[in-house]
Specification:
Structural class: alpha+beta
Radius of gyration: 28 Å
Number of helices: 3
Helix content: 10-25%
Strand order of the largest sheet: 3-2-1-4-5
Shape: extended
Order of helices and strands: HHEEEEEH
Number of strands: 5
Amino acid sequence: AAKAKARPRPQVSGGAAAAGPGAAQAGARAPRPRPQASGGDGAAAPGAAKAKAKAKSRLHEGMDAAVFRPAEGWVHKGATPLGELFIGKVVAGEVTNVLSERVWLNIGAEKDASFWCKGHSFKVGDSLSGLAIDNIDLKKGYVILLPPAANEEKEGA
């Protein structure tokens, strides 16, 4: 197999280099405008925000979180960085929120940890201990714990 020789690129005369900085190349096309879902002013299309909110409300229809999200979010300043946590670490904490089958706890980290548990009776303010970290997603800022029943099964094994 013979190697193909690289061909020199043709020089474009009268281009940006010839005319000076900021000049457009001769024969260059302008970029295509991107399609917009709005009227062009950067605002969302009429009804798009309403439809999104309606779809989101259907997701948790009939369910309300025990506590509304604070304005600053569920971030704890000065707490342990998520990067210092590790899978398998056993933690304790106080329940900060409950929504359907999901429970959130303040485990002393920058963000609350959570676990899923069907048919639970946890309430905001309950103290839980002996929970193992099952997953950490640093990019999304999630810490997932094994639910109490799963922790008991692991200890018994």
